[in-house]
Amino acid sequence: MIILAVGIIISYLVGSIPTAYIFGKLLKGIDIRRHGSGNVGATNVFRVLGKVPGIIVLALDIYKGFWVVGIVSEVLGLILPWERVVLCVAVVLGHNYTLFLGFKGGKGVATSLGALIGLTLRIPSILPVLLLTLGAFLVVFVTSRIVSLSSIVAAICLPILMWLTPQPLEIRLLGLVFGLFVVYRHRPNIQRLRAGEEPRVPLFGKKK
Fold first, then answer.
1. Considering the entire predicted model, what is its pTM?
2. pLDDT class of 208 with cuts at 50, 70, 90
3. Whose CA is closest to 40, among 103, 93, 106, 100?
């Protein structure tokens, strides 16, 4: 239990690293929470700082989840499915409620993705679910160009696919928790979507 507690603390702290905030300070000396959507996530970095910083922040947020589940769990010997699931939840909670920004953070999409990628290394049955969920995200994004809507649809698809495929119970419950996390964190976006005010991301060229 002591090792598990250490793993939870490490996972939470790693998840809490506010990459979007750090890049805003390093590149433009700004608090990204006061610009764009105000969210501390990769999408807002794309809007405020540009494509390259956005891609880097996205990759780092994904890697936070992957590193915890794919590497930290192995080093600490936390290799049972339920132990990995606990670390998954801890790292996403860290991202969503970062210790370093007054417990206000991102929406957990990228870090959840990284954690799921880490899980596929030991539980291959998750891979088809992950690919189908990413496919749903891409289809909605290409047709709507709305990141939040794409994330919400993917978050709904994830637990459904987890329960429709042969997965360990812990993994099915994780899919449900991750899906609820993402939808809950997108409450302001859902309000803007209902009002028709959610911004779209241009696929090519500059937004007019």
1. 0.90
2. very low
3. 106
